[in-house]
Amino acid sequence: MNIQTSNPTQVSGPPVTFKLQDKGSAHVSMTLIIAGATVLRHEETYAGSLVRTLDLAKGNYECTYVEIAFKTGALGPTYDSIVTINGSTAVKAKGSIAAGSDSDYGFAKFTLVVA
Asked: Which of 3, 39, 66, 71 is 20 to 30 Å from 19 by CA-CA measure?
């Protein structure tokens, strides 16, 4: 899985609004770990976006993004995921689970700067 990040991702805040969404056909689990702050998990991407607003203090936050895409049942093999922070793209992953495989996964790190 190829995950692209905007590093660093700089936004104004607080508050800081996170949006996690996937528009592919696979079952996708998205996890954003914000060191020293919280963990955002979105495991029902078929039901729409996950939006959370946090009162993050100004400063730098090391972030780890983890994504797992599953091809199961009637679901298809594609994932088209994006994480935006205050409307700016921080993470993107787009692709397809390889033929003969039931899943694909990956992770990436980036720094979030709240100014």
From this structure: 71
